[in-house]
Amino acid sequence: MTALNPFNAISPLDGRYRSDVLPLADYFSEAALMRYRLRVEVEYLIALSLETELKELPAFSTEIQAALRGCYENFSEADASAIKSLEATTNHDVKAVEYFLKNLISQHLPTVNTEWVHFALTSEDVNNLAYSLMWQEAVQRVYLPELGKVIGALRILAENQADTALLALTHGQPATPTTLGKEMAVFIARLQRQRDALEAHRLLGKLAGASGTWGAHQIACPEVDWPEFARGFITQLGLTPNLTVTQIESHDSLAESYHLLTRVNSILIDLCQDMWLYISREVFRQKAKKGEVGSSTMPHKVNPIQFENAEGNLKLANSYFHFLAEKLPVSRWQRDLTDSTTLRNQGMPLAHSFLALGNILKGLDRVAVNHAQIAAELDRHWEVLAEAIQTVLRKNGHPNPYEALKALTRGQTIDADAIRAFVSSLEMPDEEKAKLSALTPADYTGLAGKIARGEIA
After folding, report:
1. I want to staple 414 with a disulfide (CB 3.0 to 4.6 A). Which of 100, 183, 312, 418 is the partner?
2. Are 232 and 355 in a shared domain?
3. Separation in Å, CA 310 to CA 57, 186, 237, 277, 318
4. Which of 119, 147, 175 is the last residue in one of the domains?
5. 428 and 367 in a common domain
6. pTM beyond 0.70, yes or no
């Protein structure tokens, strides 16, 4: 078998999960890399023609510019195959793109001097810009909208359950109640902060020749301010210029972006594990889907597989991101080639992350709040009011309030009658006693509802 199909792909991303991650193929496939390299070459050629100090290269008309841009805007599988055929001879992927572009220009724009294609460039000038554009645009156009959907789904859940009192568990033990909505709001706030940082983050790019000195540029055309040209060109592409480099751009900004993704993924792992535990605790029920099987032997099973799948993919993604962030900024002297094969894999962790987002959305869509279980759980743990009682006692100058409540409640399950009998026995103002006597675990949620509705931030 040679043709790629879902059944013979080595990677499950290109096999089992192909349809789920397909939007990323436009950014991280081999054809996508060719197209982005071609885009950099074309835009560089146009920028050279518009440089007024380059008298030898006339400025391209708007018609020629449009025709040149069509080379990458209309890039096809046939074009990718043609580049691959050229690479079989050159054994150099960027040179194959250069020859492909020269051939196209010779056929369709014979007035353009093709020797200005790839003028004074090293392949890494093209590659670093292409890889950064691929990454930045995939994150902005594909990943962030999907992350936004997850945040949106959590926000709906938080608002709908803003006042649904929930027994909190610290160290796995009953603790001061919260609300289900407030707990979802915590994840919203954490994710939104990282999303904002990721959206604002900009990648660096270089265009400084074989050793970062503009040596070939300067010897051929010293009249051009090449650092300023590079600054303008890189900015025009949507990247931030890095003018102090070796042959390669140092990849520090890519590493920063990967680290941002790992933080998003770590928060999502926390969410998946909490949802799994809430489902196990029956805070959420899962909606059964007709025809689905939860177990090959236990017919009753409805498993939280979406959250489990997401957790696995998020952890796998983070292992990739950690490696990429550690490896890419390290290169021997002016450069070695280890970054080349490594960078080709940057789409893998983003695809695993994107796949996880889709599964989280499916998981959230399949759960329903089990209000009866939540209420019953709260009613079994009146001892959680000990904090409220001892704090009010402190306010009223009662001697040793903490110790009194500790003796009553620590390690014991206390019901409503026991709490109210204890409150009744206390020496304190009647209004305070009435307030505590009326208090229930379901009422003891503080400002959680306001937090859940976004009134406190």
Report:
1. 418
2. yes
3. 54, 19, 34, 15, 12
4. 119
5. no
6. yes
Active-site residue list: 171, 295
Domain shared by 60 and 84, yes or no: yes
> How far is residue 222's CA from residue 353's CA, in Å, rounded to a whole number?
47
**Number of structural domains found in the chain:** 3
Q: CA 128, CA 26: separation in Å to the nearest integer?
A: 18
Are residue 189 and residue 69 in the same domain, yes or no? no
Q: How far apart are CA 316 and CA 311, in angstroms?
A: 9
The tokens of 82 are what? 């043609």
Question: SS3 of 428, please?
Answer: coil
365 located within any domain: yes
- Cβ–Cβ under 8 Å, residues 175 and 245: no
Task: State how far the Cα of 279 lies from the Cα of 363, in Å rounded to an integer.
Answer: 11
295: left (phi over 0), alpha (psi -120 to 50) or beta: beta
Q: Per the domain annotation, does 11 fall within a domain?
A: no
